Amino acid sequence: MIEVNAPHDSSDNRHPEHAPADHPRVSQRKVGVVLANLGTPDATDYWSMRRYLNEFLSDKRVVDYPDWKWQPLLQLIILTKRPFSSGQAYRGIWNTEKNESPLLTITRDQTHKIADGLEALYGDQVVVDFSMRYGNPSTDSVLRRMQARGCDRILFFPLYPQYASPTTATANDQAFRTLMKLKWQPAFRTVPAYFEEPAYLDALSASVKEAYAVAETPPEVLVASYHGVPKRYLLEGDPYHCQCQKTTRLLKERLGWDDEAIVTAFQSKFGPEEWVGPATVEHVAELARRGHKHIAVVSPAFSADCVETLEEIEEEIKQSFLAAGGERFTYIPCLNDRDDHIAALLAVISRELSGWC
Known about the structure:
The protein has helices spanning 46-57, 67-93, 102-122, 139-148, 165-181, 198-214, 231-235, 240-255, 280-289, 307-323, 339-352; strands at residues 13-14, 26-27, 30-40, 126-135, 151-158, 187-190, 221-227, 262-267, 294-298, 328-332. By secondary structure, the protein is α/β, with parallel strands linked by helices. The two termini are 18 Å apart.
């Protein structure tokens, strides 16, 4: 198995053919694959959370207000209070055994499995690693490590099924910032949105079927809950909202369900702007008031469970449904490192590596 986040091993270095005897040894040429996810704090204490939130909320792709308006509010008010509440949320889901967030654990597990799959296909020609847009391992450190290991071609894969400016675009932005600083840039490709990938839809529908099969009573409605964005982003050309709606439709068709059996909603609203809707936390309460006693929630926009699923959905959104009269709430985990999900990601990677391997 290819070691993930491994330091450069100088034993891979070779003396270039036909070079003078005193020429430095260089790394064997390889292709790199970097899996990129959103990010994670290093710990749940105040200062770790503040560093993470500051990096996240200072990103212009996430909050695009002018600095003169946003930074005083962020630094003097939001980052004074929010690290406490966010730290508490992370502590409730923290992987205490490994002392890290579930997102970090799951992304590493995904990377190991994908490394095994690519090694079976291409031998030691491909190096696989993962990075985080915010926090560690940083995008910059991973790309530089890739180059040190001889990767003169790199495939950068943001693990977001649907494209969005605050996710896919900012991950790519960060990678490009590193490329701008390198004297010798590797050839570079980014992976596009993959929500229409048949194998991804197969894995998503299989996870729903499995959850319904083991439920004591089948849920009456499935809520496909996506991370929200300001409505303005949609009007300015971001395709995320449309791709989310299409994902729900394609999932419904895969399942062979009627329109009423599945609905689309959006969670994690932040700030005063109008966001795309309906809001998941409000919509599940409305479903309960309409008489639905058992619902299920799935998160097709997340490739790995994280604070938005394990804490927000499993606690806040669940409580909203139960408080409004609902009785049973089923959360269907993200695809994480399921074998069918890994197979879907491998199919995307293999296609995007065309001509390189």
